[in-house]
Amino acid sequence: MDNKELKSDISLQKKKSELRTELHKKGSLKNGAVNDYDHYAYFSESQYKELFNELFSQHGLEFKCSEESREMFDGTDSQPFGVMVVVACTIIDKDTGIEETSYHTGIAIDRGDKAIYKAKTGALKSFFANTFWVATHDDPEIEDEHKAKVVRKAPAGSITKGQLAMLKSLFKDSKDELKEIMKNYNKKKIEELTVSEASEIIDNKKGNNENE
After folding, report:
1. Are 156 and 131 within 8 A, CB to CB?
2. pLDDT tens digits along 110-127
3. pTM, entire model
4. Of 53, 47, 59, which is closest to residue 19 (Cα–Cα)?
């Protein structure tokens, strides 16, 4: 990297740092949408887009993303459609033109044809959360006013429904193999895995399948 490229990269990293600082001042972001089926609140895609359109504009940055790969898999009986997508997310410094690209995975299951959309949204949220350290307001308990009951959410970082379905699909003919792998994580049940642990197992299994 020559001096010009180095200065350009420093400019981009400085803008990202300034954006993180401004985002930190906003504090924990309040979830603005509710899933009516599973009854939980979440920080929606539209909230992410509205927030970062404003921040990117203020700090001279542009953003683009594209789908790199897509893999369908069998979900659960109640949500039979599963998909895993990988998206390329690119930040562009408008002053220098330098780009920075990272790749993020989204996994989702659905009762209908929304699995792909949900997976892409998950990957996009992963980019924003991991790149800019977004803190959203997640209550451990959420009251559903319509049904007057409290729904307890899984602990932060727990395996997602999509990852659970993906693991069951990948290891449907090799359950003993999965049990042996889980011993490395000191876990007896799939549900005890964290998001990062599940992702690591999925990536390793997919890589082994491709090499066979």
Report:
1. no
2. 887 788 888 888 888 888
3. 0.63
4. 59
